[in-house]
Amino acid sequence: MKPHETPLLRQAAALGHHVHHGIHMLNGQVGSYCEVFGLSAPRTG
Predict the structure, then answer these.
(1) Is residue 2 part of a domain?
(2) Cβ neighbourhood burial of 1 (10 Å; 0-12, 13-18, 19+)
(3) DSSP per residue, 1-45
(4) Considering the domain boundaries, does residue 27 fall inside one?
(5) pTM for this model (two decimals)
(6) Are the beta carbons of 41 and 34 closer than 8 angstroms?
(7) 14 is a domain residue
(8) Cβ(30)–Cβ(42) under 8 Å?
(9) 30, 41 contact by CB (below 8 A)
(10) In this structure, what is the dihedral angle of CA atoms 3, 43, 32, 19, given to the nearest 10 degrees?
(11) Highest taxon of the source (predicted)?
(12) Domain range for residue 25?
């Protein structure tokens, strides 16, 4: 995901909050998106 860290995430971290970038959640959803929309799965690597 780009940018990896947004201004909001930087500000939250600076205030001592735990931030979550969410890329693992997106990666977990790709297969479902492909299935729903009839797309081939993306290549890995």
Answers:
(1) no
(2) exposed
(3) --SSS-HHHHHHHHTT------HHHHHHHHHHHHHHHTPPPPP--
(4) yes
(5) 0.51
(6) yes
(7) no
(8) yes
(9) yes
(10) -30
(11) Bacteria
(12) 21-45
Task: Report the Cα 28 to chain-centroid distance in Å.
Answer: 9
- Nearest Cα residue to 23 out of 11, 39, 6, 40: 6
Write down the pLDDT at residue 1: 63
* pLDDT tens profile 1-44: 678 889 999 999 999 999 988 888 888 898 898 999 999 877 76
Cα–Cα dist 11/16, whole Å? 9
* Joined tokens for residue 35: 């299935």
Domain count, the chain: 1
